[in-house]
């Protein structure tokens, strides 16, 4: 591991040792931060993207007196934990390197923390045992909401409180934990040792820390962002790491699916709320009157947001700051309103597929039920107020109703960029009706717009984010820097190969028309057999979908191909079930470790393709069977493609090609996790041979696909692979210094060259300017203004 020590003085950086890609990456990052703009950067896998990013930004923070907070977003909890561990090591190193006492003190007073859900951070002995996240959230809220806490503190023992939450409340805000960098495991340990709640500790420390690392949703999903990230300062630096799927996260955060059981449960919850209102009317009617008075005054959310049961799902600039409309102010009126709305949704479950815009849905709703758009917009807010007034417990039981209210608010707020799709059957082959309401967001730029508007520097980065210009188009922003880095290697540590045909010269492809052709299936099978013979330890194979994988594996079984593979390696299969997959993965790793070797059959866009590394012996070859196009018959995808075409002039084929190639790159990128690692990347489909397809791959992969390697038959590919493995095992050539590893001298040389280049550029620009000025004079006819003014032009 290489650590970088960067001092971003006014004009240059000092780095002690790094690899060339890291240096270029940091230069571009610094340019972005200096310009307080946004950027899209693609850095090859395994070249230390996270450490470069953290090194530069932390140096930036420590150097400038206006400490800009770093908000670092990653996809999964293991990735968050990895980034925190990296930051911790970096800060230890910085402390070692600090020269003066003042510098040492500065490094010691640095705060870095990570946030994840209550489910991962709860230490309450009962609550933490719950398996579902929503249940943990609900039970925690029962113990920590403002009303319960007040009651419990006034009258100890009258209600159950959480001791860990109470203990935290006694501490001074901003000083809940000593300075330092804490991984999620560290915070849990600190919480247990000091008897304080780790979850609320992190939440309350967020305004005071230098770096916070959490998941994309905490910034992109307005329901969560409103509660968690509202107070983060505007000059913060936001980083979205592993952002190759950021458009999908944006879309998911504003889309809702409502199923029939959910609507039934929502209807039951409405009934329960109605009963509760009747009960309260008899015992404590003043509560409802108080709430009514507050709503009249427009005090929608005076309570502390920390324990809010739900937040407004719409984006900040779309929020209405008015009083809640009169016809839903009274609790019983609101209940009647909800009842009508849920009944309407239940009745909208025809046998036919239906697709409509929010506007036409609202019109139809009004015609049938007289429900107007304005009260519908306030549904989420009104429900939150009611739940708080009624002091409901077990809030997980009103989860479906909460979804319905969120849907109501969203559908009544947005006219453009959303579509309602009602599908009578859950899947295409289903015969029993199970209607699903998809309220789907089609425009990823809607969710990310407030992030770009609010924060001055947003960095979008990943190992595979090509083609880069697609992201600014889809997310509607203008980057100051947009760069993809090549990979410097002293020896080729990976070999990308495109197999277009089998040894029998039959073209192979996962195209719909030929994908089940026995010749194609057999050729795919023989690729796996041949590679399982020659590749040591682990092979990971990816298919475009579960359905396709199932049919191929069944066919391979019948053809005896699996038996053949078994002779050389064990076979494990990824399934949609997360637990099953993690068991398969564990055993796969065990088989790779003990020398038996294994093949893991998995799917693009599945769990394995995202965030799981197959470094060293866990992945010596990765085979991509077919091009992982999305299922184009999906109505949601069709609607999105139509929208992209109309709104942003992105053609269907352009988007589908981009999406397929980014997923293929993501899959094959799993095999290489560092410059000392090595592996084979096999693209098995004749369509990968096309130059336009390959151009969509990241530059660092594409640069190593030679003309010969882009159109191979299985036997040719095997010959090349054998040769590659022989070379890689015989020529260790660890000394990468000067080429793929720069010492301080190499860096200085590069800096000097860079300066020289800049001077030449500046000189050239000056010359151009002089020429332009000359041109201007000539443009005026060769006379200056004074001469022209004195000329007698009246001829
Ligand atoms: S306050 Fe913390 S420890 Fe207590 S239940 Fe909630 S998450 Fe768990």
TrEMBL record:
Chief place of localization: nucleus
Highest taxon, organism lineage: Eukaryota
SMART domains assigned: DEXDc2 (SM00488), HELICc2 (SM00491)
Keyword Coiled coil included in the entry's annotation: no
GO biological process: nucleotide-excision repair; positive regulation of mitotic recombination; transcription by RNA polymerase II
4Fe-4S listed as a keyword: yes
Biased composition (Acidic residues): 769-795
Pfam families the UniProt entry points to: DEAD_2 (PF06733), HBB (PF06777), Helicase_C_2 (PF13307)
Cofactor(s) this protein cannot do without: [4Fe-4S] cluster
Compartments reported by the entry: Nucleus
Alphabetically ordered keywords of this record: 4Fe-4S, ATP-binding, DNA damage, DNA repair, DNA-binding, Helicase, Hydrolase, Iron, Iron-sulfur, Isomerase, Metal-binding, Nucleotide-binding, Nucleus
Gene3D superfamilies, A to Z: P-loop containing nucleotide triphosphate hydrolases
InterPro entries to which the protein is assigned, alphabetical: ATP-dep_Helicase_C, DinG/Rad3-like, DNA/RNA_helicase_DEAH_CS, HBB, Helic_SF1/SF2_ATP-bd_DinG/Rad3, Helicase-like_DEXD_c2, P-loop_NTPase, RAD3-like_helicase_DEAD
Signal sequence bounds: none
EC number per UniProt: 5.6.2.3
GO molecular function: 4 iron, 4 sulfur cluster binding; 5'-3' DNA helicase activity; ATP binding; damaged DNA binding; hydrolase activity, acting on acid anhydrides, in phosphorus-containing anhydrides; metal ion binding
Region (Disordered): 752-795
Coiled-coil region: none
Helicase ATP-binding domain span: 8-292
Gene Ontology cellular component terms for the protein in this record: nucleotide-excision repair factor 3 complex
Catalysed conversion reaction: ATP + H2O = ADP + phosphate + H(+)
Family of the protein in this entry: Belongs to the helicase family. RAD3/XPD subfamily.
NCBIfam families registered for this protein in UniProt: rad3 (TIGR00604)
Protein name: DNA 5'-3' helicase
Encoding gene, per UniProt annotation: RAD15
């Amino acid at each position: 591991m290489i650590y970088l020590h960067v001092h971003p003085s006014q004009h240059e950086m000092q780095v002690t040792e790094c690899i060339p890609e890291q240096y270029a990456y940091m230069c571009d990052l610094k340019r972005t931060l200096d310009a307080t703009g946004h950027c899209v950067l693609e850095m090859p896998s395994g070249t230390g993207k996270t450490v470069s990013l953290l090194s530069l930004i932390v140096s930036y923070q420590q150097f400038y007196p206006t400490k800009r907070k770093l908000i670092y977003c990653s996809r999964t909890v293991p990735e968050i934990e990895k980034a925190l561990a990296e930051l911790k090591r970096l800060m230890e190193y910085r402390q070692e390197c600090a020269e003066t006492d003042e510098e040492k003190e500065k490094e010691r007073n640095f705060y870095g923390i990570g946030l994840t859900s209550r489910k991962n951070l709860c230490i309450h002995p009962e609550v933490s045992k719950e398996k579902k996240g929503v249940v943990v959230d609900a039970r925690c809220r029962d113990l920590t909401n403002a009303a319960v806490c007040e009651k419990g503190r006034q009258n100890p023992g009258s209600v159950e409180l959480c001791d860990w939450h109470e203990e935290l409340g006694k501490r001074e805000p901003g000083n809940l934990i000593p300075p330092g960098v804490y991984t999620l495991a560290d915070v849990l340990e600190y919480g247990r040792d000091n008897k304080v709640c780790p979850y609320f500790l992190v939440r309350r420390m967020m305004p005071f820390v230098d770096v916070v690392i959490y998941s994309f949703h905490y910034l992109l999903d307005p329901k969560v962002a409103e509660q968690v990230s509202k107070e983060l300062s505007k000059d913060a630096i936001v980083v979205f790491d592993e952002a190759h799927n950021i458009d999908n996260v944006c879309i998911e955060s504003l889309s809702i699916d409502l199923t029939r059981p959910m609507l039934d449960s929502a209807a039951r919850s409405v009934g329960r709320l109605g009963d509760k209102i009747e009960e309260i009317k008899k015992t404590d009617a003043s509560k409802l009157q108080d709430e009514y008075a507050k709503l009249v005054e427009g005090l929608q959310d005076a309570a502390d947001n920390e324990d809010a049961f739900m937040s407004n799902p719409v984006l900040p600039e779309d929020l209405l700051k008015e009083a809640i409309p009169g016809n839903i102010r009274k609790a019983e009126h609101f209940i009647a309103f909800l009842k009508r709305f849920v009944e309407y949704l239940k009745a909208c479950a025809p046998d036919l597929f239906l697709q409509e815009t929010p506007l036409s849905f609202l019109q139809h709703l009004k015609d049938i039920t007289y429900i107007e758009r304005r009260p519908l917009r306030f549904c989420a807010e009104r429900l939150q107020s009611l739940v708080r007034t009624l002091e409901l417990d077990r809030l997980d039981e009103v989860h479906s109703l909460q979804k319905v209210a969120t849907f109501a608010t969203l559908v009544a707020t947005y006219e453009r960029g959303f579509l309602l799709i009602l599908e009578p059957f859950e899947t295409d082959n289903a015969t029993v009706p199970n209607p699903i309401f998809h309220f789907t967001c089609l425009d990823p730029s809607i969710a990310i717009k407030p992030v770009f508007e609010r924060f001055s520097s947003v960095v979008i980065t990943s190992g595979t984010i090509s083609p880069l210009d697609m992201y600014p188009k889809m997310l509607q922003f203008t980057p100051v820097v947009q760069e993809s880095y090549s990979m410097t290697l002293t020896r080729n540590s990976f070999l990308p190969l495109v197999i277009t045909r089998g040894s029998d010269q039959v073209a192979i492809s996962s195209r719909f028309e030929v994908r089940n052709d026995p010749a194609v299936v057999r050729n795919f099978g023989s690729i796996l057999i041949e590679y399982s013979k020659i590749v040591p330890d682990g092979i990971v194979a990816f298919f475009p979908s579960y359905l396709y994988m199932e049919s191929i594996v069944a066919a391979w079984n019948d053809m005896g191909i699996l038996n053949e593979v078994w002779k050389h390696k064990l076979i494990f299969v990824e399934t949609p079930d997360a637990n099953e997959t993690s068991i398969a993965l564990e055993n796969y790793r065990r088989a790779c470790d003990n020398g038996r070797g294994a093949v893991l059959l998995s799917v693009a866009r599945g769990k394995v393709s995202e965030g799981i590394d197959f470094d060293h012996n866990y992945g010596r070859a990765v085979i991509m069977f077919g091009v992982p196009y999305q299922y184009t018959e999906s109505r949601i995808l069709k609607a999105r493609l139509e929208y992209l075409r109309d709104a942003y002039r992105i053609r269907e084929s352009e988007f589908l090609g981009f999406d397929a190639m980014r997923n293929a790159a993501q899959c094959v990128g799993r095999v290489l996790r560092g410059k000392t690692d090595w592996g084979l990347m096999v693209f098995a489909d004749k369509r990968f041979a096309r130059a336009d397809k390959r151009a969509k791959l990241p530059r660092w992969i594409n640069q190593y696909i030679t003309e010969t390697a882009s159109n191979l038959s299985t036997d040719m590919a095997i010959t090349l692979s054998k040769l590659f493995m022989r070379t890689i095992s015989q020529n260790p050539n660890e000394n990468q210094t000067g080429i793929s590893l720069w010492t301080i001298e190499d860096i200085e040389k590069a800096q000097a060259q860079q300066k020289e280049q800049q001077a030449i550029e500046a000189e050239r620009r000056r010359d151009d300017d002089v020429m332009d000025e000359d041109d201007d004079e000539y443009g005026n006819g060769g006379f200056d203004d004074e001469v022209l003014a004195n000329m007698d032009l009246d001829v």
